[in-house]
Amino acid sequence: MKSKWTRRLLFVTATFVVLWLAVPGAPGRAVAAKAHKFAIILPGPIEDADYNFRGYQVSQDIKKRFKIATSYSERISPADAERVAREYIASGFTIVGFHGGQFIRIVKKLAPKFPEVNFIMESSGKGKVPKNVWNIHRHFYEGFYPFGVLAGLATKTNKVGVIAGIQLPDFKSSINTISDALKATNPKAELVFAFTGNQNDPVKARQTAEAMIANGVDFIINMVNLGVYGVVEAAKKAKRKVLVTTFYTDKTDKAPNHFAGTLIVDFRPPFAKAVGGILKGNRTGYVPMRPGNGFELKSLGNVSAKAIAKTKEAYEKVRAGSIKLRLEMKKVRLAK
User: Fold this and answer.
1) What average pLDDT score do residues 175-197 get?
2) 131-175 pLDDT per residue, tens
3) Does residue 15 form part of some domain?
4) Are 176 and 334 in contact (CB under 8 A)?
5) 48: DSSP letter
């Protein structure tokens, strides 16, 4: 039978251990970090080799980098995302990431209801977020700016096109900075743009590209996902040489004679920064996703050496912050 003094000693010892584990930076904190589980919710199939595949890569990178359990759910619509997130939380997941700006409202709804859970969202701005949310702010307008330089130096007809799917603020602001870069590089060049209404419809994208090409466009900057394959088909069938760009993943091998460059969009670096911050005890934070941190240029080709050099130079200036870019997200206003 334990004596009265023994019971008191055990109580004091247990209390000390609890308090020690609560101290930031204490050795026992490493055990708590290992208990974290990360899940990411994706809007489409990871087989797309594009946007959703990039989200899948995040789950694999987090698992390898931080040695914690990870999971992902694909083909999840905004209407179903809350249910999926709640299921993850009920299963003990402590960090839930959402791949896409369409989930912001859901994050802001769930965060106050589950204060013990960490949420990561992607957005188009800084904004105010709940105390347990990390915001990854995608600066697409910075990433696309160098393509305006590339197009201005590569076009032979002085007609450049931009094809996007949905009228997202990110795309509107990117068209504006492309317009600024094009005007500064080649004042004679004209920029036209179109929204097909669908990011992944290659038929609509092909028809839009064909119409642009018929009107003299010989350089098309893509802001569609799987729709890019329709644009490529239109370029291949054109009577004159038509160059195209793509983004998210490099697709140069699909049409090596027509692709002029890729804007690589890699979500692993910003998500790693957010998860790393959470594991250190930072419940909220802001990560700008921009050239140098998630955005990179790759596979510049089918253009002159001068065009490649000037495009890389523009990218480096944007990355370094030595160029102040216009940020206008509500409406497309082409440079005059």
Assistant:
1) 98
2) 999 999 999 999 999 999 999 999 999 999 999 999 999 999 999
3) no
4) yes
5) G
| Pairing between β-strand 294-298 and β-strand 259-265 as defined by DSSP bridges | antiparallel
Judge if pTM exceeds 0.85: yes
In whole angstroms, what separates CA 65 from the centre of its chain?
Answer: 19
The verdict on 61 and 85 lying in the same domain is yes
Same domain, 216 and 274: no
What pLDDT was estimated at residue 24? 47
Pair 123, 203 in one domain: no
Question: Same domain for 202 and 82?
Answer: no
CA separation (Å) from 304 to 156, 186, 241, 319? 12, 15, 14, 23
* Amino acid (1-letter code) at residue 6: T
Instruction: Write out the residue range of the structural domain in which residue 87 sits.
Output: 27-138+268-291
Interstrand relation of 259-265 and 219-223 (parallel, antiparallel or unpaired): unpaired
Number of domains in the chain: 2
CA distance 121 to 144: 22
